[in-house]
């Protein structure tokens, strides 16, 4: 009877050391390559503001900012965020002073159960930055259409329809959308 030899199995590392810079502090972690930013924040760093809602990038409860851009942290691998600046809801306030959006959410009752609020806040900060940088949305009038479109690259005015479109990836089961839009409008330039 002939024997066959099995080729040697190549063992590749399944974990890496990374540095996550979260809310201004550097954290050196060893994470499995499959660990998401959300799981690293919650399970390794104890930052539980970002929530695991759908775990499929469809609800926005896990939204955080990476290098100033909003992302679904449940879909982003922690190894891909190595060295990046991450801002979570815990890092929005200035000590005891809430971020202006946090204050506006309180003033306009932009939350009910509060589960989605951390993702809503981080997403809203991303919306303000995107509009200020001139990034159009699907409802931004096109230049040359005579509809009052902003010149390319100039700030996009955040109307209620702009805010609704830009925040459409963040779901609120309680239905506080009108109050969330009012809060963002108050802070928008």
Automatic annotation (TrEMBL):
Keyword Plastid: no
GO molecular function: 2 iron, 2 sulfur cluster binding; metal ion binding; oxidoreductase activity, acting on the aldehyde or oxo group of donors
Pathway as given in its UniProt record: Alkaloid degradation; nicotine degradation
Keyword Nucleus appears in the UniProt entry: no
InterPro entries xrefs: 2Fe-2S-bd (IPR002888), 2Fe-2S-bd_dom_sf (IPR036884), 2Fe-2S_ferredoxin-like_sf (IPR036010), 2Fe-2S_ferredoxin-type (IPR001041), 2Fe2S_fd_BS (IPR006058), Aldehyde_Oxdr_Iron-Sulfur (IPR052914), Beta-grasp_dom_sf (IPR012675)
Record SUPFAM superfamilies: 2Fe-2S ferredoxin-like (SSF54292), CO dehydrogenase ISP C-domain like (SSF47741)
Domain annotation 2Fe-2S ferredoxin-type: ranges: 16-92
UniProt keywords, alphabetically: 2Fe-2S, Iron, Iron-sulfur, Metal-binding, Oxidoreductase
Domain of life from the UniProt record: Bacteria
Region (Disordered): 136-160
The protein, known as: Xanthine dehydrogenase YagT iron-sulfur-binding subunit
